[in-house]
Write a structure and sequence with these properties.
- By secondary structure, the chain is an alpha+beta fold.
- The chain has two helices and seven strands; from the N terminus they run ββββαβαββ.
- The longest helix has 18 residues.
- The radius of gyration is 15 Å and the shape is globular.
Length: about 150
């Protein structure tokens, strides 16, 4: 299994699509979140409005350390989401969709409790899946999200 963190991509890069209306896509890896491998933590799509697509976040801290259990990994994945949202001028209330992958059905209750506490009264669209495994066998939870402003 490859070691974390993996080689970093540039902190951000932008391209403009010359379609009607003009649109920019900025891929980013905000400070405060672990360095990703061959993907971006976020893709900010702007035209008249902004849409932020966030790659799956796991229990890795910015320094590359992995929380040792499911509860810690859930907390860190949610913290990573908050960091990425903030780096793009968004808040939890901007979330429109979350997709959650758990490797153990026993973590459904802890996930739901943590999610409810973290989101407060906000309830974006959500999908929860129990999967056989994630990209690294040590990962117990992964959370993808989309936000708009």
């Amino acid at each position: 299994m490859a070691a974390w963190p993996r080689p970093a991509l540039p902190a951000s890069r932008a391209r403009t699509c010359h379609e009607e209306p003009p649109m920019t896509i900025t891929l980013s890896n905000p400070a405060g979140v672990h360095t990703p491998g061959a993907y971006s933590h976020a893709a900010l799509v702007k035209d008249a409005a902004a849409r932020l697509v966030i790659s799956g976040q796991v229990g890795l801290a910015a320094d590359g350390t992995l929380a040792p259990d499911g509860h810690g990994q859930i907390a860190q994945a949610l913290a990573n989401l908050g960091t990425i949202l903030g780096a793009h001028g968004m808040a939890k209330s901007n979330l429109v969709k979350m997709t959650v992958f758990l490797t153990d059905s026993a973590m459904v209750g802890p996930w739901r409790s943590a999610r409810t506490a973290w989101l407060g009264g906000h309830a974006p669209a959500s999908t929860l899946l129990i999967v056989a495994g994630l990209a690294d066998s040590r990962f117990l939870v992964e959370v993808e999200a989309e936000a708009a402003a």
